[in-house]
Automatic annotation (TrEMBL):
Family matches, as SUPFAM superfamilies: Pseudouridine synthase
The name this protein goes by in its record: Pseudouridine synthase
Coiled-coil intervals: none
EC number: 5.4.99.-
Taxonomic placement: Eukaryota, Metazoa, Chordata, Craniata, Vertebrata
Amino acid sequence: ELENRGVVGREWGGGVAKWKGVWSGAGGQEEEEEAAPAPKKRRVAAGERYVPPPRKLKAGVSFSAAHFAETSYYFEGGLRKVRPYYFDFRTYCKGRWVGRSLLHVFSTEFRAQPLAFYRAAARAGRLRLNEEPVRDLDVVLKNNDFLRNTVHRHEPPVTAQPIQILAEDDEVVVVDKPSSLPVHPCGRFRHNTIIFILGKEHNLKELHTIHRLDRMTSGVLMFAKTVEVSKRIDEQVRERQLEKEYVCRVVGEFPEHEVVCEEPILVVSYKVGVCRVDPKGKSCKTIFQRLSYNGKTSVVKCLPRTGRTHQIRVHLQYLGYPIVNDPIYNMEAWGPEKGKGGKIGKTDEELLKALVEEHRSKQSLDVLGISEEDLNTDAENQDSGNSSECTESVQADPINENSCPAEGTKDPERNETPACTLDPDTNLETLEKTTELGSCENKEKDPLCMECKITRRDPSPKELVMYLHALRYKGAEFDYCSKMPEWAMEDWEE
């Protein structure tokens, strides 16, 4: 019923969230609630809990100044970092939750956090049901219940390399995207994305994504400034009138002659963002041509004729020439031949476990765009579809994230009781017994936030670069090209 109505759904426990929602089709846009007169309450039986009717959603509203003002950046060690901030995850009650208590939903579907966390969050005013603070987690959920969870959000660092504007006119903006930056909000990323940085630092707003690049892929990225331009170029995409040209550096001596790979590709995990060649996968085609060889590695031109997730990377791995520093497809977890010819020798579950363990041992889970909490949560067993690595494909994008108001603003739909920041020395057991809450002041540290208690190793700038670059994007009316990356020069050495 919720999907038929176009209502957003949200996995929202423990600060780890995953969307299956309504995507407006425009980069950097999300649904917002439309202000409407408060509906008259219907009569309910004695003891029955009233549930207001669902609010209207106003589609296609761009990220605004309030969204951009949620937090700020700072730069350290060659990295762009986001200061932690408070954020609201919102959802209407999912069909399978109806008739279950809120406590039961948390205990079965959001096990990334102990139940003590949710009890403490309720005490702190972080959990709201139909905009009223949740006082009793044993409350039984009903259809159309609207829930809001305020969390302390941390984003992984990305490269501090600036976004270069390659071209801009009244119709389009073309940028040279640095590696490690997602195009739009997804998974754990929101402010550390191309859409947010362009809006906050270049005053480029209301942009529509025309095509997308994997988070670790750099290069030419194009946005339309209007819906009309977006539709016109989308038509060219459907008619296969656009040409994409990539360049990469791979392990070994790639053949001198042209190589064509048409192996079908299957998604193994949306959560971790892993694909492999499989007969049950989607059909695709990539043409490869070697440009140079330095005795150890080869620079290869790639011409994808389809747009599957990780297509170039998976095809190169299958051919036995993975990208030199690919954090997924050039790992020992794939076996002694690293997936060449589709030889893996593991089940998908064993492969995913091995990949995660390999990155965990290197303290590099952030390179995959996931955290320990992501791995612990059971939400993926219920809803798949959001790749934590923010892989970009031609499908709809899970970014319908409704923000909490910026500092100094009020949400007319919210009860005025604030969700507070507590004394940083307070533990969960103490909070469960506490009735008086502190004031909302410190946004950098939060006593309920597990991330605040963890010290993570920062990735080096080198770890945030993958040797795959979108060199050229050509259509009937345009031809945009970036400079060849330094690592793609013929005489370059590691």
